[in-house]
Amino acid sequence: xxDKQPGIIRKLLSYTLLFINIGSVVWLALCVVAATTxxxxxxxxxxxxxxxxxxxxxxxxxxxxxxxxxxxIRSLLSLIALACCYKxxxxxxxxxxxxxxxxxxxxxxxxxxxxxxxxGIFKVPRDKPFEKEILNFLSLKDADIMCLPEYSVPKTDSMxxxxxxxxENGSYTDYRFHYDNTLGTTIYLGTAAFSRYTLHNYIVHQxxxxxxxxxxDVALPAGDTMRMFFVHLSTFGLSxxxxxxxxxxxxxxxxxANSLGLTRTFVWKFNYAFAKRAEEVxxxxxxxxxxxxxxxxxxxxxxxxxSYTYTKLRGNLNDAFEEKGRFFGRTYSQILPTLRIDHIxxxxxxxxxxxxxxxxxxxxxxxxxxxxxxxIPKAGN
Length: 381
Fold this sequence. Notes:
Blueprint: H1 4-36, H2 52-67, H3 75-84, H4 86-92, E1 94-95, E2 108-113, H5 128-141, E3 145-154, H6 163-170, E4 174-183, E5 187-195, E6 200-208, E7 211-219, E8 225-232, H7 240-251, H8 254-257, H9 260-288, E9 295-300, H10 308-314, E10 318-319, H11 320-324, E11 326-327, E12 342-346, E13 351-357, E14 369-375
Helix pairs in contact: 1-2, 1-3, 2-3, 9-10
């Protein structure tokens, strides 16, 4: 009887692990569904997009686990699942460890998107040295076109307090700004675009009450005309206190069980934000589909790769991170290391990516996404 007991325990453990493995495959399948299914059609499905990196890692774990047991055949369960969703995997993880050329040479263009968190406006009292650091950082990165969500200006003059200095430092000839929110009674927050190329046919499309899509056409040197889109989509609406609570739970997991009410609030806010962004990206995608030119879209999408937002806005475009990024490519510095919510999508008919970077900085709660491209000459040039 004693001899049989260890065998029974091993079998029980083996089948328990198999059951969990099957659950992890189902989990991954739901993440795949979340990437292409509108939250407006299936409630709660978008929540799975937040967990996609973890579903992938858990399935990789099971592949490796079974390979070190007598049940090696079981590794095929997760291996086949991972193979079936490889397109999703390469949007989540960057495997590009080869050439990453960020040098500026003739025939190239550098484009940056960076949520600048108000350009220091949230620091009270005003911190002028901090603002100077931001301006120096922008100048150092030397982008030809910049998209700056959460840029701040006084309501009386959109050229103050930074635009003139940014244009002077970077030799920008075109500057556009459109507000999407206010801070108090005197400040606008919105999306700014600075460009060394004229933004022709500039239009602002309203996607929601506080969400706008900025559009402008750029004549690339010796290349085609490219239609640029800059956007800052709706946030999850978490307060600073709620973000601080999430950070606390990360260090004290037992606190989660004592705050189920707050957890339900998070779920409600997330579902609401997912649905709101779905409406916004459906409108944005319809607008972009009418473009007579190859398109380029960048900004703060407030959503992850593997989400409906990401999939819908990307369409058939290339993702700069997928082409040249590494690891997770984190762009939001709080909560989780998997939060890549700022993106650059481009049409490979007019641009060929040579390199990208997402440098760490304490100047904002977001990291900039900077991509270098070779301009593909227009036929006949």
